[in-house]
C-alpha cells in the first residue's frame, strides 16, 4: 500500500510539472523561430532600397540619353549639327525658313530675328542673325533651347554654327548680334514624308541660367609689372 501511494504521489507530481515545463520550452524556442523572419525582412528591405537607387540613377541617366537620342535622330524637331557644308551643289528646289524668338520668364532680354522669313535652296549654306539686348542693369546669362517644325524636318536641318551651342552672358544694357549658319540637307528630297514640305520654322527660346560661373578677376586683368621686393 505504501508503494502504491508513492507511485500515485510520483504520478501526481509529474502531472503537475508538465504544464509548467511546456510553456517554458515554448518560450525558449520562440527566439529561434523569430530569427528567420528578421532575416527575410532585412532581405526585402535591402532589395527595395536597391530598386529605389536604380530608379533614381535611371532618372538622371534618362535626360542625357534623351538629348543624345534627339540630336542623333532629329526626334521632336531637334536640329542636327554639321561640321561642314554639303558636298553637293544646292538643288533647284527651294523652301521657306521662318524664324521665331522667345524669352522665358525671369530673363530680362529682348530677343528678335533680323528677318522673320527667307527662302533658301535646299543644300544652300545660309547665315542669319538674331539680335539680343540685355535690358537690365546687371549681368545676366541665358541658354537657348531650339527645335524646328514640322518635327519631321529636324533630321535634315543642319547647323554649322549657332549661338545656341553655348551659354550666353550679357553685360548690363549690352546688345549683340548672334549668327546661325545652317542648310537644309539635300537628303530630305529622298524622304517622301516631306515631299509636300514648303516651310520650316526654326524656333528659339532663351532660358535664364541661375548659376552662371563667375569670371575670375585675374582673367580680365592684364599682367602688370611688379617692383622689386
From TrEMBL:
Compartments, as annotated in UniProt: Cell inner membrane
Highest taxon, organism lineage: Bacteria
Periplasmic topological segments: 63-229
InterPro entries: CtaG/Cox11_dom_sf, Cyt_c_oxidase_assmbl_CtaG
Keywords per UniProt: Cell inner membrane, Cell membrane, Copper, Membrane, Signal-anchor, Transmembrane, Transmembrane helix
Stretches in topological domain Cytoplasmic: 1-39
Renumbered residue ranges of the record's region Disordered: 1-31
Primary localization: membrane
Compositional bias ranges of the Low complexity kind: 16-31
Membrane topology per record: Single-pass type II membrane protein
Transmembrane segments: 42-63
Family: Belongs to the COX11/CtaG family.
HAMAP family: CtaG (MF_00155)
Biological role: Exerts its effect at some terminal stage of cytochrome c oxidase synthesis, probably by being involved in the insertion of the copper B into subunit I.
The protein's name: Cytochrome c oxidase assembly protein CtaG
Amino acid at each position: 500500500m505504501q508503494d502504491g501511494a508513492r507511485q500515485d504521489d510520483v504520478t501526481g507530481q509529474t502531472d503537475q510539472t508538465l504544464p509548467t515545463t511546456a510553456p517554458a520550452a515554448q518560450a525558449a524556442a520562440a527566439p529561434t523561430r523569430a530569427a528567420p523572419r528578421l532575416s527575410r525582412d532585412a532581405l526585402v528591405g535591402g532589395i527595395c532600397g536597391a530598386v529605389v537607387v536604380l530608379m533614381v540613377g535611371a532618372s538622371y541617366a534618362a535626360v542625357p540619353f534623351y538629348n543624345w537620342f534627339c540630336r542623333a535622330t532629329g526626334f521632336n524637331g531637334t536640329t542636327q549639327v554639321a561640321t561642314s557644308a554639303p558636298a553637293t551643289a544646292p538643288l533647284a528646289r527651294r523652301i521657306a525658313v521662318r524664324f521665331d524668338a522667345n524669352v522665358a520668364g525671369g530673363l530680362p532680354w529682348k530677343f528678335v530675328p533680323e528677318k522673320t522669313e527667307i527662302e533658301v535652296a535646299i543644300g544652300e549654306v545660309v547665315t542669319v542673325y538674331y539680335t539680343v539686348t540685355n535690358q537690365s542693369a546687371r549681368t545676366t546669362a541665358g541658354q537657348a533651347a531650339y527645335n524646328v517644325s514640322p518635327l519631321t524636318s529636324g533630321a535634315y536641318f543642319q547647323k554649322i554654327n549657332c549661338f545656341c551651342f553655348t551659354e550666353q552672358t550679357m553685360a548690363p544694357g549690352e546688345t549683340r548680334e548672334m549668327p546661325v549658319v545652317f542648310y537644309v540637307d539635300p537628303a530630305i528630297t529622298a524622304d517622301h514624308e516631306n515631299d509636300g514640305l514648303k516651310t520650316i520654322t526654326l524656333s528659339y527660346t532663351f532660358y535664364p541660367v541661375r548659376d552662371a560661373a563667375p569670371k575670375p578677376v585675374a582673367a580680365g586683368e592684364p599682367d602688370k609689372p611688379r617692383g622689386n621686393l
